Amino acid sequence: MTQTKQPNEARPLAGRGSPSPLRRIAARHAVFLAVSAGLLAAIIAASLFSGSGEVAAGRAWQVLWSPDGSAASIVVHDLRVPRTVLGLVVGMALGVAGALIQAVTRNPLADPGILGVNAGASFAVTLGIAFLGIEAVSSYVWLAMAGAAIASVMVFGIAAGGGKGATPLRLTLVGMALGSVLLGANRAIGLLDASIYEQVRFWEAGSVADRPPETLTSVLPFIVAGLVIALLCARPLNALALGEDSATSLGARVPLVRGVSLLAIMLLCGGAVAAAGPIAFIGLMIPHVVRWIIGPDQRWIVVYTILLAPVLLIGSDVLGRFLVSGELPVGIVTAFVGAPILIVLVRRERASGL
Question: Which family does it belong to (predicted)?
Answer without folding.
Answer: Belongs to the binding-protein-dependent transport system permease family. FecCD subfamily.
